Amino acid sequence: ASLKRFIEMVPKAELHVHVEGALEPELMLALAARNGLPPPYPSVEAARAAYHFADLQSFLDLYYAGCGVLRAEKDFYDLAMAYFRRAAADRVVHAEVFFDPQTHLGNGLGWEVFMPGLARAAEDAAAQLGLSAAYIVCFRKEMSAASANDTLSGALPWLGRGHVIGVGLDSSELGNPPAKFADVFDRAARLGLQRVAHAGEEGPPEYVWEALRVLHVRRVDHGVHSLEDGALMAALNASRTPLTVCPLSNLKLKVYEGQLEARLTQLVGSGLVVTVNSDDAAYFGGYAVANYGYLAAAAGLGVAQVARLAANSFEASFFLGPGSGGEA
Ligand code: ES4
Ligand code: ZN
């Protein structure tokens, strides 16, 4: 019981959360109605009942369909504010939040629709909730390097504190190794942006090596498949490159099916800078506290280890230190 209380109370930074993945079915259906769109599901219960995934792609299909209800600036404000309120209730005091511009651009929206809504939510989170927030633009890995480059161009008016502090890679991993995005990541580096990438979520350790050596990422998102390569684990340890691990996401997407608890236990014991994150909480069934709680139970953690994970989240954040997003 005291471990549960500690998990609830310890201040946390959240470093791997997709704002679109915080779209709870209640808000999804309300936005569909507000925008005169057909509801993606007949009811909240039907939406939750549909959230059973065989793998990453089967999740992404529903996630992108859900994004279709986001049409107006206020929709993005309401979505981000709902996440910040929920995160603050879990004692998240700092969040670096992914979003997928290509998805919204593909739905016919411009940057002038989604970005002011997201930015105003970050400002209100700081003022009303004491939660500092910034955004990381994700490029979708199955889309072209040219599309990623155009997306970075669209972000240029929005670089800086409380707005866009970095770039990442997300979406379909298998068959889309990171090196395709070498040039756009170089350009992001020259712009003073932080670089991260989803790698080793479903894909092999080679994709993590590529993210490190070709994209020069400061953090690896997921990275759980690094466990299969001892030299990679040693390299991540030596450079103190953090992994943003998302336990409930791995569970629901059947990463390491049957062996997940053992793998998470190994990761936490590895000495790497492991952090705990919620990824797409509305789809995977829990925000920060639920992810810490699941991991603590799965890996048999005590208060000292949970405190270490929370401390890691600040070490791994771009909030502190030279070259942090604060100066971008
Ligand atoms: C994602 Cl769990 C996950 N993996 C890759 N891309 C994503 N985008 C949103 N959630
Ligand atoms: Zn993710």
From TrEMBL:
User: Tell me, what is one Gene Ontology molecular-function annotation carried by this entry?
Assistant: adenine deaminase activity
Q: Which UniProt keywords apply?
A: Coiled coil, Hydrolase, Metal-binding, Nucleotide metabolism, Zinc
Question: Is Zinc among the key words of this record?
Answer: yes
Cofactor(s) this protein requires: Zn(2+)
Question: What stretches pass through the bilayer?
Answer: none
Q: Which GO terms describe its biological process?
A: adenine catabolic process; hypoxanthine salvage; nucleotide metabolic process
| Cellular component aspect of the GO annotation | cytosol
Keyword presence, Kinase: no
- The Adenosine deaminase domain is annotated at 11-319
Q: What is this protein called?
A: Adenosine deaminase domain-containing protein
Q: Which species is the source of this protein?
A: Chlamydomonas incerta
